[in-house]
DNA helicase RecQ
Amino acid sequence: MTSPEVSETLQVLNRVFGYDSFRQGQQEIVDHVTSGGDALVLMPTGGGKSLCYQIPALVRQGVGVVISPLIALMQDQVDALRALGVRAGFLNSTQDPDERRMVEAEFLAGELDLLYLAPERLRVESTLQLLDRGKVALFAIDEAHCVSQWGHDFRPDYLALSDLHERWPDVPRIALTATATKATHAEIASRLKLEDAHHFVASFDRPNIQYRIVPKNEPKKQLLDLLRSEHSGDAGIVYCLSRKSVEETADFLVRNGIEALPYHAGLDARTRSEHQARFLREDGLVVVATIAFGMGIDKPDVRFVAHLDLPKSVEGYYQETGRAGRDGLPSTAWLAYGLQDVVQQRKLIDGSEGDAAHRRKQSAHLDAMLALCETVECRRVQLLAYFGQDGAACGNCDTCLAPPESWDGTVAAQKLLSTVVRLRRERRQKFGAGQIIDILLGRKTSKVVQHDHDSLSVFGVGTELAESEWRGVVRQLLAKGLLAVEGDYGTLVTTPGSDEVLYQGRQVLLRREPKRAAKASTRTRRAETAELPEEAAPVFEKLRAWRAATAKEQGVPAYVIFHDATLRQIATERPSTLAELGGVSGVGENKLAKYGEQLLEALSA
Ligand code: ADP
Ligand code: ZN
């Protein structure tokens, strides 16, 4: 039997949001919080966390107070809720006193369903008193991993959130995050005093995202190929490590006819927010960015996330790639990775501030990331395992679609390592990968001749592999810790593991890149799941044009009007009455009343 609240939450889901059913995990969370329980929710990006506090806030008495660090996005979040007929407002530092007073008055008069607050507001006694004078339905703590001091997004203001419980012991709290290894999970629970809360851990799988990691040759050109062949006209995010490469890559894309905007901390605040706003509002823009971009960007139709440099951790990588495909439609997570990335990241760690423990931790993060890059198994299985979850081979990642072979690289590894050892023992020298490979290939370059390296006994012993293959060997040995880099010039040095390979017969299995790239199969997959029936395509375009005009007129992002998935369903089913239109997923009561007639007209025109 369902309790009255349960059916009420489902009604709100249908009526306000226009969705038929809860997604996996949502119902339990919504019911728990609606009936006054505390919750800690771990769910991947795009999993549907917002409804988990929005619906309880609508059903419970009083105002749902949402604490979020994403000040720049509050306006959009509030606009999106208002478009659904939800009474939402926010308080943050971007407002002038008049605006603030108005929102405060609405709150006190019980005229709000949801109030978004920046965390620093809660440090101000007057805000606390304001909350005392009104009725709070619940506290939702979004991006809860910001309370984790070792995490990558730490915000000191989040530490104060542990006091909420003392001041308002009867108000339920729900903390939500998409970043969740065991360690982060435990830290959030203890810092927010949520040990006794119900912990909901959803599956972290994002089946609609296709994970691909490719060897890096000419990264910009590889990126361009990807965009042209699979994502033309799509919105996407390209991540680069440095500001400089952000600028260069954005320029390169623009010169090649792709609308791309840079985003990094070196740009002034106005340019940054302008670029972010354009990305959210316009269709099909590409943002090239450092990791400063993206947290809380809930644009549902980001079709690809590309990394041109190796991310520093699997956690960060998963969060960044998770920004693709929130609408559930097929999307691509693509990473180009090469030897230079390993050299560079090791250098960054060696030169980083902080104590030895901190460096060890960064090193462990990097190792996990490298293991993901070099795996011959399903990428998704490995990703989920990182978050402590099981899964079967997915059929939608590059290693599943075009399985790489592994080969016995023991002899190759021995040749390479003994070159490093000989240079050190016989010449007291250290060199980077380029010179070592030249020696193995027997190339009489000027640098080889200058150092008399052609007289080494290992000179020319490695001609069975091509240069690119040798680079692959170096990269994989580095990833496995069987070789190490040192200093500013990326010189190669041996490790205890190298000795096992050289003297104790340790076998080295290496990955051979598949000849056939994974992308051919991608297109068929996309075609099956996402391409519209032929006759629906022009209708979809017509609806998109209507949406663009409407969004512009109202000054909101296009997806606030309707998501792509909703327009697709309308274009395919072509409803002819308001009742039929109301049955489409994503068309709730308010939007039906507001846009129903216009849409039916656009369809019949
Ligand atoms: P998260 O905050 O976990 O990243 P969101 O709350 O932004 O995810 O939800 C992701 C997308 O899924 C949104 O576009 C949202 O409208 C949609 N969504 C959430 N729950 C449902 C549902 N039960 N049915 C259909 N769509 C849903
Ligand atoms: Zn797979």
